Amino acid sequence: MPNILPPTLEISAAYKQSLYQAGSVVTRINQYPKGIPAKLHQSTLIMLSAYNPGGRLRLLGWNIKMMRKLEQELKQYEYFIGKGSLKEVSEPLFMVVLSLPKAVVLARKFRQNAIVMIRHQRLSKLTFLA
């Protein structure tokens, strides 16, 4: 995918060590999510962001603007505000009720490296888009 860098071992490890939270849901990659509301037990939940597209650092103002644009795209879906964090660093994200194919299209539109897929009683899965 143009403008999206394949993940380095360091980036891949950072995604896997990060804690992902949105609404009442908390998870890490390859762990069972906690706090999924009963009404969402049959849903596919996707965590995605619009920050730092293609794995390249951007200015805060630019990232905020892109998150607002992503939020506009999500208005037709049920979604929750959240964050991904590793140590003292965190990045805002959204958790949205959305199929994996639609999530991949949306994440690529915002040139994201990866998304996190969450399902009730299943391990949380990291999907790289490069």
TrEMBL record:
InterPro entries membership: DUF3293
Name by which UniProt lists this protein: DUF3293 domain-containing protein
Organism: Commensalibacter communis
